[in-house]
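Practice problem 4.
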């Protein structure tokens, strides 16, 4: 006989879970008891949003569900932020939420929430477990659903009295993965349509990739002379140094690449949902009239055709399709000049455009790109500061980039902590804007507690830069709600017991970074930016001028 908390934890062990992220709560004390001598590491975080973002980043890194535990009511609603990231990023994750006792339902009891209603739009599956004897059934299904088809988050609510009950039930072995064979006719159709194209473009994205898949894509694209673009924040799906890599279809994309997407007559979409971000709000491609052949590879059979109709659909994970394409040999066609020109445009886009001020982000990012080990992991959240990373950092291998395609602020630091815990020997660097960092900056304490020696680079320009950019271009000179009064970020890191430095000149950054690495602890390097440093392509004053011209 085991209590529910022990049954749950034993099932996590059977699924190979070695680490969970949590904020403790009285609603799941039995689970905490089960974790006590289980051998599973329980990383105690400082906010439920940070805990769920760490779990999501763990899922991205490992391809297995990241696991988080949060308490009922406000703990659950705080944890919704990381759940939304997992949904939009197609990341396997399981969120366990404490719940009130079953006999108190529907009385608006203390911290009572209807989790099916709250998390229904955010998760692949939401359930509440009423019977302790059915825990193995629900847990087995949760892991299967989180991993199957298009991966995503599952939320399970755990009534506290259910967890405290005892049952004599066996553990269930994990469900065997589904066989994923490639349809030979669909594969031949893809190769045929590609071969007939004059201006083809491979678009790589989505989740569920592997280092081997990234290498297979490079090999197939180079052998066939095909250009490869990646979707928003999926830049590590192919070595960016490849002659076939032509850039990312993300926020702030190269205008030349946007034109290439419009001119392409055949798209091979590998793993991506392909929606508003790569098409700039459907301006580059109209779902009603895409004007090109679309070959869509995606593991969820219900997804292709939901926005853009596809001419050929292959319902397998992208790595399976890529391996089959590679094994079939190169696809030949008359597109060598098209690919070479696209690559040249990408390389021109990499030439740094000087930003104002004594600290220039483009130079900092290029130095890191050239100096970090090839297996370094770079994380970021939201904000204009990330545009410098997207444009100027060269990603060399798969899972060297952790960033939210959902655009969530505060993601970079929790993701960096999860990455360092999973890969302690690898260098992990987080880029965060001043606003982004302050969303989850308290997780520095978590990093220090668990020895996650990350380096956080805080780009401090004293504002919510992305919103200020849109504000100046839409309502020039009418500044409202976007300025920030910031702390001394380096001193804040030292107050937590970490290493902190402030950099006010670009030339001082390499030495500061070396000291941060050598400190043997979590470190924060604050970059004091010129207030004019707003975006990679224009300054604050130039954004305002654009807005003024538009308003005339």
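Answer key:
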């Amino acid at each position: 006989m085991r209590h529910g908390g022990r049954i749950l934890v034993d099932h996590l062990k059977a699924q190979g879970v070695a680490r969970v992220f949590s904020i403790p709560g009285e609603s799941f004390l039995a689970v905490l008891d089960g974790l006590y001598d289980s051998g599973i590491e329980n990383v105690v975080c400082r906010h439920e949003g940070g805990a769920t973002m760490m779990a999501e980043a763990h899922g991205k890194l490992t391809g297995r569900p990241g696991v988080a535990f949060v308490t009922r009511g406000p703990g659950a609603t705080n944890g919704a932020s990381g759940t939304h990231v997992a949904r939009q990023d197609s990341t396997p994750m399981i969120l366990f939420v404490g719940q009130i006792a079953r006999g108190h339902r529907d009385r608006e009891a203390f911290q009572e929430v209807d989790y099916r209603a709250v998390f229904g739009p955010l998760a692949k599956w939401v359930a509440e477990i009423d019977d302790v004897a059915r825990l193995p059934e629900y847990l087995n299904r949760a892991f299967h659903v989180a991993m199957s088809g298009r991966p995503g988050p599952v939320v399970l609510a755990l009534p506290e009295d259910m967890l405290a009950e005892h049952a004599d039930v066996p553990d269930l072995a994990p469900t065997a993965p589904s066989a994923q064979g490639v349809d030979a006719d669909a594969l031949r159709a893809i190769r045929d349509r590609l071969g007939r194209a004059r201006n083809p473009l491979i678009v790589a994205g989505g989740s569920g990739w592997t280092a081997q898949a990234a290498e297979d894509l490079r090999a197939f694209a180079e052998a066939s002379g095909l250009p490869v673009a990646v979707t928003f924040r999926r830049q590590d799906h192919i070595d960016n140094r490849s002659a076939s890599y032509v850039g990312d279809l993300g926020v702030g994309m190269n205008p030349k690449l946007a034109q290439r997407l419009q001119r392409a007559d055949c798209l091979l979409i590998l793993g991506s949902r392909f929606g508003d971000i790569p098409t700039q709000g459907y301006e580059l491609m109209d779902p009603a009239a895409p004007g090109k052949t679309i070959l869509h590879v995606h593991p969820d059979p219900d997804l292709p055709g939901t926005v853009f109709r596809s001419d050929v659909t292959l319902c397998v994970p992208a790595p399976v399709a890529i391996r089959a394409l590679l094994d079939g040999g190169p696809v030949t066609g008359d597109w060598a000049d098209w690919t070479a020109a696209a690559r040249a445009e990408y390389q021109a886009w990499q030439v740094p455009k000087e930003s104002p001020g004594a600290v220039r982000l483009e130079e900092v990012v290029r130095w890191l790109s050239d100096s970090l080990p090839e297996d370094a992991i770079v994380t970021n959240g939201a904000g204009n500061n990330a545009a410098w990373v997207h444009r100027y950092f060269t990603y060399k291998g798969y899972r060297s980039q952790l960033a939210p395609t959902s655009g969530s602020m505060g993601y970079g630091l929790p993701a960096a902590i999860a990455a360092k815990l999973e890969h302690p020997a690898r260098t992990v660097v987080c880029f965060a804007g001043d606003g982004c960092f302050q969303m989850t900056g308290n997780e520095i304490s978590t990093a220090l507690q668990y020895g996650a020696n990350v380096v956080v680079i805080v780009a401090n320009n004293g504002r919510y830069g992305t919103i200020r950019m849109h504000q100046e271009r839409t309502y020039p000179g009418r500044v409202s709600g976007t300025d920030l009064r910031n702390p001394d970020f380096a001193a804040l890191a030292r107050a937590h017991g970490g290493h902190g430095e402030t950099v006010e000149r670009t030339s001082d950054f390499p030495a500061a970074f070396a000291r941060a690495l050598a400190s043997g602890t979590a470190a924060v390097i604050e970059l004091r930016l010129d207030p004019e440093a707003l975006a990679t392509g224009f300054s604050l004053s130039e954004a305002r001028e654009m807005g003024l011209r538009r308003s005339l």
